[in-house]
Design goal:
alpha/beta; about 25% strand; 9 helices
Length: about 280
């Protein structure tokens, strides 16, 4: 059996509170191979926090502990910050939800992609510019020469997301963490972005963590799924078996989806059981 790219065991994240520490991740464990791993759950369930903890991009006041948080033999909790800077964007990349808040509004697209190429791939400015053009072509931007000269506010949502993906793929990372990368896009553009990510997983053999609240999308796109609730993983299963999930929380999430074949007067609101906070996962 191949060694996993990433091992996460008993990951806990807490923030200071008046009464002590408030845990927002409570014993999250999983491994990631060269596959598409979906993480789903309601807002506030800890999906994005888990992604940021892996990148060690939590706020300074956060306290993160784990029995194991390893990538390629590196302990991500204790690695020096200089080593983490090399890993971030180099071997582990993160695609955020909204490119408007992730791209620097003061710099053109060319400068931002070229900087990423030169930082992680150690190439000249001319080589980095050629690489930037190639990356934009890979993410299906029609006129990459023109797009290099644009500022982020001049990009559409789909184009901005493609530019961000190009930046994250500049160093050919081993792992990509995609945090709600398609939630602000229309269905057609969303499909194109998913095709791009799927191509990279298939062509380069990278590991993808796909964070989303869209259960049907994850069931169709990913290989495996983790279902999170209140900072815990309640269920882990193959994505194709998500409609047959056993845990009552996952069943409640599926049941709350609006049906497309009939009208309903009121959507189902999931009911929560206090035992889910401490009880065994499915």
């Amino acid at each position: 059996m191949a060694e996993p790219l990433l091992t996460v065991s008993n990951l806990r994240v807490a923030y200071p509170a008046p009464s002590g520490w408030n845990e927002v991740l409570r014993g999250v464990s999983f491994t990631l191979g060269r596959e598409r791993l979906g993480i789903v759950g309601e807002s506030g369930s800890g999906k994005s926090t888990a992604g940021r903890a892996i990148m060690r991009l939590l706020p300074p006041q956060a306290r993160a502990t784990a029995d194991a948080l390893r990538f390629a033999g590196v302990d991500l909790l204790t690695a020096p910050e200089r080593q983490m800077r090399n890993l971030r964007g180099g071997r582990i990349a993160m695609i955020l939800q909204d490119p408007r808040y992730s791209l620097n509004p003061l710099h053109k697209v060319e400068r931002q992609i070229v900087e990423s190429c030169r930082l992680h791939a150690r190439m000249s400015r001319a080589e980095a510019r050629e690489r930037a053009l190639d990356l934009l072509e890979q993410v299906r931007i029609r006129d990459p020469q023109r797009v290099l000269g644009l500022y982020p506010h001049e990009l559409s949502g789909g184009m901005g997301q493609r530019v961000m993906i190009a930046m994250m793929l500049a160093a050919e990372p081993d792992i990509v963490i995609a945090d709600e990368p398609t939630s602000a896009l229309d269905v057609t553009v969303r499909g194109q972005i998913l095709d791009i990510l799927d191509e990279r997983v298939s062509a380069k053999g990278l590991g993808l963590i796909f964070i989303s609240h869209d259960l049907p999308l994850v069931a169709d796109f990913c290989d495996r799924v983790l279902v999170m609730y209140a900072g815990r993983v309640l269920e882990a299963l193959p994505a194709s078996e998500l409609p047959k999930a056993r845990h009552p929380y996952t069943r409640a999430l599926l049941g709350s989806l609006p049906p497309l074949d009939r009208k309903v007067e009121r959507l189902v609101v999931p009911e929560r059981d206090p035992s889910w906070l401490e009880g065994p996962a499915a």
